[in-house]
User: Fold this.
Amino acid sequence: MAATQPQHQQPQTFTVSYYTAADLPAIEEQLIEVYAEVYAAEAAKDSFFSVERFTDRLHRHVSGSRWGCALGTAEGAPIGYAYGFARNSSYQWGGLITPVPADLIAENDTRTFALCEVMVRQNWRGTGTAHTLHEELLSHRPEERSHLLVEEEHPRVRALYERWGYNAMGVMQPYDDGPRYTSMLRPIVL
Assistant:
């Protein structure tokens, strides 16, 4: 898939390609490169956001069911990506702070896609690139719904996800040393 930046910026075409867990060795370095740039300020202050911790989380996510990634590139360089995995019937929702109805978190092998990361490099922000990556990723998903977490300290990002069709379902803190997140859901197909 090819897309172009809006006219208010210098138009530049980028390509989005879809990858699975088997492809990780070919793209892992690019994912880490983008992460290191996007989270440099956070990583300098909090080890939770370090490249090492991200790499550990990435490997854990890739080991999940049906991992998929939409990676955007321009002129051969990565500009951003979105990735996640399918929750299976044995998945346990850890870190829930807000009580939610049991039927909301009951899983089977096709109910929920866990959207783990959506990120784009600075010069691609505000161009619709993140939305393009998100939608391309979801277009490959057989699950019923998508779930993501957004840091509570980022209300503008939460508002963006709400515009994309997500609704808050509660608060989570899946890692003891990590931030608190607003937990959000949306149907895969709107």
